Each structure stands twice: as structure tokens, then as C-alpha cells.
Amino acid sequence: MKGTPHFKEEQCAPALDLEMRKILDLQAPIMSLQSVLEDLLVATSDGLLHLIHWEGMTNGRKAINLCTVPFSVDLQSSRAGSFLGFADVHIRDMEYCATLDGFAVVFNDGKVGFITPVSSRFTAEQLHGVWPQDVVDGTCVAVNNKYRLMAFGCASGSVQVYTIDNTTGAMLLSHKLELTAKQYPDIWNKTGAVKLVRWSPDNSVVIVTWEYGGLSLWSVFGAQLICTLGGDFAYRSDGTKKDPLKINSMSWGAEGYHLWVISGFGSQNTEIESDPKSLVKQPGILLFQFIKSVLTVNPCMSNQEQVLLQGEDRLYLNCGEASQTQNPRSSSAHREHKPSREKSPFADGGLESQGLSTLLGHRHWHVVQISSIYLESNWPIRFSAIDKLGQNIAVVGKFGFAHYSLLTKKWKLFGNITQEQNMIVTGGLAWWNDFIVLACYNISDHQEELRVYLRTSNLDNAFAHVTKAPAETLLLSVFRDMVIVFRADCSICLYSIERKSDGPNTTASIQVLQEVSMSRYIPHPFLVVSVTLTSVSTENGITLKMPQQARDAESIMLNLAGQLIMMQRDRSGPQIREKDSHPNQRKLLPFCPPVVLAQSVENVWTTCRANKQKRHLLEALWLSCGGAGMKVWLPLFPRDHRKPHSFLSQRIMLPFHINIYPLAVLFEDALVLGAVNDTLLYDSLYTRNSAREQLEVLFPFCVVERTSQIYLHHILRQLLVRNLGEQALLLAQSCTALPYFPHVLELMLHEVLEEEATSREPIPDPLLPTVAKFITEFPLFLQTVVHCARKTEYALWNYLFAAVGNPKDLFEECLMAQDLDTAASYLIILQNMEVPAVSRQHATLLFNTALEQGKWDLCRHMIRFLKAIGSGESETPPPTPTAQEPSSSGGFEFFRNRSISLSQSADTVPAGKFSLQKTLSMPSGPSGKRWSKDSDCAENMYIDMMLWRHARRLLEEVRLKDLGCFAAQLGFELISWLCKERTRAARVDNFVIALKRLHKDFLWPLPIIPASSLSSPFKNGKYRTVGEQLLKSQSADPFLNLEIDSGVSNVQRSQSWLGNIGPTHHEIDTASSHGPQMQDAFLSPLSNKGDECSIGSATDLTESSSMVDGDWTMVDENFSTLSLTQSELEHISMELASKGPHKSQVQLRYLLHIFMEAGCLDWCIVIGLILRESSIINQILVIIQSSEVDGEMLQNIKTGLHAVDRWASTDCPGYKPFLNIIKPQLQKLSEITEEQVQLEAFQPITAGKTPEQTSPRAEESRGSSGHGSIPQGEVGGSSMVSRKEEDTTQAEEEEPFQDGTYDCCVS
């Protein structure tokens, strides 16, 4: 009966009629029953073996007494082996093994053995037994026919797996299945004896359960896939203990998708309760559900790079973007009625070369539901395969097949159901480009066939290419353009496959190339696990006479019951030149006799891709060996194609352990992909009362996740152990581009260090020095060592640095290589290993270098580090913070308090912020109070001295941009320091050099005189203004007014000083949207004229020009009439071209503000010249007039400006117009006393303005009121006044420009 819910009415279960034929009384309790071909073998407790025909007749053969069967260690010892010497011996459990032709038995005293008939006659004289000496506690047995293994469960809780030696007939221990403390710590008193062992129907896994409960699943050669003990013996969150699931009997379902279990939940000790919960304690039938890797049944998938798992009605895969839309977690919560258990992929699947990100993106699966129409008549799924690109999947059920596209999300089934029901796929299926290649049995013709279907055409035999086959095909695989099949008559056949387009239909044709009979080497065809063609051979292409043959199908790899056998082509005969004959007519070379490469092999991976750079990885052969981990058969290449040494073998087999079960190998990426199964405790706190929920809890709750692991470090280490350092270097250099290559080196160093440094006995030949020397070959050497040290405990550091070198030398190497972050890591190691004086000395070195290179984060950490050393905290290294901490320096606070963050809306700003304008006075107190928690004044002084020295250097080298970054990032009190240094470091020694340097640093273009300015003087003057105003209204620059420069918020400032990041759109947007509101907020208090310390005194100039206020209303009405012609646009663009980037403008104005505050007027003049704004020069004059200014500084300014004038005349005529504008101010410097006269000289210019000239400013006025988001009432009436003031100031700023330009052009 089919176990699917959808079966149709006419397909219901057949009527079964059971009747009794005969009763046989064997006069003793029956211990075990086994069916042997036509006979039934019965073991009874009186030590007899009965052989009974199925007809129910004993045939007169008498029962065999076990005491008469001779037993020995192997079949070679004298035929008369010792007999079982005691009377009451009988068989407790036995199982027949067809491929070994004998019985695995467990006796009642715990001994185990294997009984085999010497000849075909089954009588006492013809039986002979072998036994291993060391097993005395056997409890049960299970046999794997495909791999010829016998698994004996023991009372100790482990399972011993034996095989029979072909030559001697002795029982050899293959491996043990035992839980170690590493997998489950408290194992010894938990499991009890092994109760049941069962191999799956596909012989790829074995399931084990113990007396006290728990389930575990193991691969053929002992890799643990699932163990439920973690969940079974856990405590729930309310402190109660979970009852483990005890299993009395179990059996696998079809294809291994189900495990049927009869359970007994410890009912022996339950009292009778009236509570309905007691019902749960009765034994019941449970059903566990599994998913398995495609490679268990269809090993041709091993040349793929995807992992594909198949369940009874769905597929799990991990391939590319097309399919990654939804990935439900494959957990046991799939089915409501019974929790399901998932089977870890037992064999292998693969990933694809679409790129690592898609293959490793996350831990979940892409689940494809198999078409229910196909499943209805063809359950269960037997084979599945995915194509190279991971976009199409084909599945095979009982009859026929179907395929699915991950791109279109559609299934394609046979249109004609009789065609589907007429074929049974026997040997698996594989993709070749767009074709599906499969081996099948044609029921109506009674014929074995090889068929090729095109994916894109309809699924119909009319479009298939069919080739008849002489015998049943058991295995099929595709390599490049060849198909290799293994048949039931033990022959291997090679076919060529090629695409043919005849007319409208595209088909593929198949032709036989070569047949090889293997019957001499293979005892039974069922024992062959997989067969593949590879380009791997014992010779690597260099030694071949014709190198291109290295990429041909060189050899056949055959997995015979776990033994990997290789047959290479025989090249000893005469070689035929390829060009002489057409490839199809070329006679293929015969194969040499087979060679055994490895034992206990579960899976094999090779690739047919070639890559010159990564030959080691692509020409290697990868083996999965179960519990023994993995092996790689690696080619060894001589360096620079020198002639190889005759004594050097050309390949080497390297074993290594990995922590996951491998399902696919990514060759170039040096990764293994797999799946991992975790058992979680399903906690039932929420539904404590329902009986059904109690059942749920009894099940292990399992989650299958994708996983991956790097293996490169294992291989490099194995090569180094074998003194193959040159090969290791070649291999590593081919992989340096991998993103995790630094991690590989670190892992290798870490593992060797842990092993050797913690070893109890002295190591005769330590590997660490070799590994250290190997890592020095790579530029990542310094990082690798320090990362490894930081991740290992302090006790091992001395051992590590004895091998890699003194940390002081490594620190200095980092500094020389300019790798400051790594140097900082070494500093923490030095701090632990050396005295404080040494670490301070190195920290100072690093701090100075970091300052020099502008690594501000590092500088902040270094300041903390130096303080920590100074305050005696040298025992603990400072934790390296990840986030940037605001420093608590006074100078930083001084600016922070006066700013509103640009990202805040003004409503949230507390009212106190608006009155902070008065704090513009100098920061009080000596700089010794810089640090809030001041533990050690000398330390702070030491740090301050370094900071001052750096600031002095920056100023002397005219690096103003760096100085701004330095002050903003480290919270350096620039203003107070500049005040002190006003006459020393903060003097401008050479105005011309300073000017040039600023142009270069701030990317500010040198001014040029436009050619067209000579033709249209008036228009040029006018539109020059338009250009400037347009620029400003576009950016709505909040810093145009000097009064509000202090309003640069902390965030904005630190962003605008990060030189390496361009101004983002977002930054400009926030500036434009919040700009005006900042102006309102900061300008309102400035209406107070008496505020001396603000530079707001510049507004004095504009208070008399009330006529401008009147102008605005008039202009506003006819503003819309402004239109620009082509030539006028050119003027504007010329004007825009003479400005630097917006960010530079913000930075220059900020610096100007700082220098104003500090009274460094010579620097203010230089910045005024660069910005070419006469208002700045005016403002400086006002300051000079209103306060006492050092005569020396005045003299310096005067000589400097003269020098600039001379330079402009000779080298940079573009500056002359501006210098002409400020000529009156320059004269005023000489005659500083005539302030009043000079003020009056300003008046006529303002009065003579025409409305037309002012008009562009209306746009800005409109823009600023549109942008401001502060409700008018909130700031109060003063806001209107301040806005007018601001506009007036800007008007004032521009006037000299127009006037000057006009004059200049006329002259």
C-alpha cells in the first residue's frame, strides 16, 4: 500500500488473505529467525540451529548443534578450530549477510562471531566460525550488505563494526561508533547498553538506540550525524527533567525516509493514575521522518557544488539567487500531527560556482515541494539531481521522472501518463548541459535503455534519444562530454554524448566509446557504491608526453564497498598524435589493472574544471572517510616547471579532520559545505495540561542547518609536517586572494600553538617554528601573529613569541610598514609582557605617528592608553572601544554647547540652548583641567605637550585643513592655544606661501579674469553677484553669516573634517533644510549691541543702511520677471567655477571664526583673501579699531599684504580685482586713526544700489523662509528682525564686489 494521502480510489490497498499453513514445534524458545534465500534459519535457546524450507518441511535435515561448529581466529588456522566449550551456549541474535555469505551472530555470553558455510552444503560438518578475541559484551547485531560490515552493539554503549579480511577470512575491526565526552559530556552513566542497531534500506546510515533511551544516527564509516541525548536528558525551564524516549523496536520505512518505532515510556514504574496523562505512558507507534543527501543514492552528483537533500515529498537545496526567495527552516515542526526527525545528509551534495555569497549566504534551505500530481502515482522519490548552475532539478519516483525549474517555479511532467508508467529508472540520472541523461528499464519492450531528454522541449519519448543497453544499469555518471555506466554484469561502458540539431528539434546523440569488464575484480555488482571518470592520475601533467592529455578522462574511480579503486589509462604503448586522426575515430587507450587508493571511503569529489592558478586544488581528489574525517590526494608540482626529482612522488594522500559532515567541496574556494543537525529541547511550559502536547515533547526536536568549513589550514599543516614547505607555499600563494586567507594562517598558527604549548611531554620536533617561518612569507605576517596572540591565553605568549620573534621588534616593523592598527594591538601585548616604561615609550612613538597620519580613532585610544599607564593601571590593558567616544575636553564642550545638532528638529531643543551665546568668552582655567577624572596631572601635561607640539608643526607647515581635523577630532582647545601662540607659532610668516597652500589644501581654484569681462563691464559686475547669490541660495549655506559660525553642530563638524569622505547628499540636505532655523536661533540674542566678545559687531556697519530694508519689499513683487539669457548663464557658471567645493567653504569659515576668536588677525586676512570677501577684511579693520592690537601683528599684516600684491601682479593676476577692491582698507591699515571718514565712505555705495541689482537676493529670502521649520511664535518677534539683519549683512558683503569689479573692468 502506498503511504501517500493522495492515492486514488482505484489504487487502494489490495485485499490480503492470511491463512495458517503449518505449525512446527521446535521444543525450545525461538531466539532469532532469519530468511536465507529459499530457507528459514531458526536459532533456539537450546543451542540448536534449524534450517527449514518455506514449504514447512524439515527435509529430514537434522538441526545443527552449535557445540559442534569449530571456531577460530581466522580461516587459515587448522580447520579443527576450538569448539564452544560450555553446554548452555545459544545464539541471542543473528543476521544473514548475503554479500559475505554467512551469519553474524551474538552468543548469550556476549561473545560475537561470524559463521560461514565452507561449501554450499549447509550441515554441521561444513560450517566454520571466526570470532574476534576482544568482544565479550555483545548485545545485538546488524549487517550492511553493500559495504560488507557487521555492527555489534555492546553493553558498554558503543557499537563495534567489523569487516571480513578477504585473504585470511579473519574479522577485522573497521571502526567504533561511540559517543565521546566531547560530543556529550556526561555520557557514561546515561545510555546503558546498546539495545538496537538498524542499517537504513540504502545502506548509507545506521541508527542506534540504548537501553535508557536516546537515538543516534551514524554514517557508514562512523561519522555522527544525529544524537538526541542533548535534548533527551535535558532539564526544562521549570526545572523538571524530561523523560527520555525509550525504544523497544524499530524498523526503517521505504527509501529510508521514515523510521517506525514502538516505544515504551518507562511504563514499568508508573502508578495507576486517574489523570488522563497516564494514557500517554502506554507504548505507542511513533514515526520519525528524515531527509537525506542525494549522494546516498545518486553519487554522480559529486561533481556538483550544490548541496541537495531529498525528503519523501520535498527537496532542500542551497543554490543561487534565483531560488533564495523564501527559505523555511527545516525543522521538525513541518507536520502538525507528528513531529518529524530529519536525517542529516549522509552522503554528499554540492555548491555551485555562482559565487560564494549565494552558496554561503545564510543557514537556511530553499525548499521545493515536489509536484503532488507526480507523487500520487510515483511515491516515494528514489533519485534526484540538480544541474551545474543550480537552476533545474530532476526527480525520479517509482515510475518515470519529472523536472522543475527554480527560475520559473514550474514542474514539467510527462504529457502521456502511459509513457511515464512504462519506464523504471534503474541507475540514477544526471544533467548534461540542458539534457537529462538516465538509465531505465522499458516495461513493455522488456529492454534496458539509456535515454536523453531535452529540458526545454515537452516531456515525451518522441523528443528523447534512446540507446539500447545489454544489461541492467546500476550506476551512471557524466564527465565533460562522456557518460560512464556500470552494469549488473560488472562491466563499465563509456559513451560519448554530443548535441545534434536536426531540423526543428535539438537532441543529443550517444555513441559507445569503450567497454571494460571488471568481473575479475568485483565479487558482487551490488557492492559498487559509485563509479566516476576523472582527470586525476598518478602522474601530474608535467611528466606526460603530451600535456593536454592531463585534462582528458584519465582514470576510472570505483568505490567498491568502501575501497577506492583507481584504473588509469595505460600509456606504456605507442602514443598516437592527436592531429593525425579525427577525435571520434581515435582509439581510446586501454586501462591498467586497478590500484587501491584508500579504505573506508564514503564519497569522492573531483572537478573537471581547469585553472592554471589553482592547480593544486583543482587537480586534487577529495575523499570523505566517515569518522576518520577527510582525505585529499594532492598533486605535487616542481617549482618553475623544473624537472621533478625521481624520488619525489607526484601525489600525496593527506588526512585531516573537519567538524561537519561534508556534502560538497568548493574546489577553488577551499571550502567544504555540509549540513548539521541540532537536537533542541522542546519546552512545554505553555501547554502543560493537554495530553497531546505530552506526546509532542517525547520527540526529539531537530533542526537541520547548512554549514561550511575551511580546510586549507589542515592541508598546509600536513604538508609542513612532511617537510613539503615548498609545496605548501605554492598552494598558499594560489589562495591569497580568498577573503578568509588571513583567517586560514591564523587558524593554523593557533592550532599548532595550542597543541605544542599545552603538551605534557616535550615535543622532539616542534612544528611551531616551521609554521612561523612559513607565515613570514606573507605580508599578513604581523597581523596574523598579533591576532593569534590576542585570542590565546597569556600563559602561551612566551612560547609563541619565542618562535615568531620579540614583540618589540614586531611593533617596530609595523610602524615601518605604516600599519598602525596592528602596531596598536602589539602595544597591548607589550603592556602585558614589558615594564610600563617600555610600553609608554612605544605608545608615544605610535601616538606621534598616528597624529601625523590623521588616524583620529587611534589617537583617542592612545590618549586613553597613555593615561591608563600613567595612573598605574598597567595591569589591565584598556578595552579597545568600538564606538567613537566623545572626549571630555573643555574645548570640545565649548563648541558643543553652542550648537544644535543638525538632525534635531528645533522643537526639541531646550530653551536653555538659545541663551548660551554669552559663553563665547575664552574657556576658563588652565588646560590641565582638560580631563574630567584627573588622576595624574603629569600624565595629562605629557599628553598636552605632544598635542601642542603637533599643532605647532601643523601651523608652521601651513596645514590648516589638518589642524582643523586635529582639533575637531581630538577636542583640542584650539582657541586658547592660539591665544597663547598668537605671536609665536600662530604668526603668518609668508602670506604668499600660506595663500598657495590653502588653495591646494581646500581644492580652492585660483581666481582668473574671464575674457568676456572686458566686453560687458556693467553686466559682468551685476551677474557676478547673481552667481554668488545663486550659489548661496542653492546650498542655503547656514555658515554664510559669521555670527552663526559657532553653530556648527558637533556632528556636522566632525563630518566636514573627515577629509576622506566626500560630502554626501544627505549632509547637504540637512544643511539646507535646517539652515535657516539655526540662524534664527543664534541670531536673536545678538541684537544686544553690548555683547563684546561676539564678532557680531560687524552688524554696526549695516544699521544705518535702512534703505535696503525698504528695497526688499519692492523687489519681491516683481521678482518673477527675472530671466537669464545664454551669455548671462555663462557669467554665472564662470563665477561658480571660481569657487571651491561647498564643504571647503564651510571649513574655511569655521577656521576664520576660530582665528577671530583667538585674535590671530593675520590668519583671518589670509582666509579673507581666499574667500575674496571684502566684508571679512572690513570686519578685521573694525576689530583693529575697536580694540588694542599688537603693533607687531599690524606690521606683519601690512608687509604680508604688500607681498601678496606683488605676487598677484607677477604670477596671479586673478587676485588683482579683489586687491583693488580692498585698497581703501589697506590704506586704512596705515592710517588707522581715521575711522569715521572711512565709515562714511561706505554710505554712497549702499544708496546707489538699483532694485534690479538686489533682485537675486529675493530668491534667497524666499528660500530661507520656506526652509525654516520653526513656528514663528516660538522664537519670538526678534526672529524677523534677525532675518532682516542677516539679509542686510549679506547685501553689505556683496556691495564692494560689484563696485570693485566695475572699476576694474573699466580700467
Helix tally equals 36
Average pLDDT score? 75
Q: Give the structural class.
A: alpha+beta
Query: Strand tally, please?
Result: 49
- Helix fraction, binned, reads 25-40%
Describe the structure.
Helix 22 packs antiparallel against helix 36. 42% of the residues are buried. The chain is built from 36 helices and 49 strands. The strands form 12 sheets. A 6-stranded mixed β-sheet has the order 6-5-10-9-8-7, with no helix packed on it. Strands 1-2-3-4 form a 4-stranded antiparallel β-sheet, with no helix packed on it. It has a 4-stranded antiparallel β-sheet with strand order 11-12-13-14, with no helix packed on it. The radius of gyration is 44 Å and the shape is elongated. The N terminus and C terminus are likely disordered. By secondary structure, the protein is an alpha+beta fold. It comes from Equus asinus (Donkey). Pfam families: Beta-prop_RIC1_2nd (PF25440), RIC1 (PF07064). This is Guanine nucleotide exchange factor subunit RIC1. Its main location: cytoplasm. It is found in: Cytoplasm, Cytosol; Membrane.
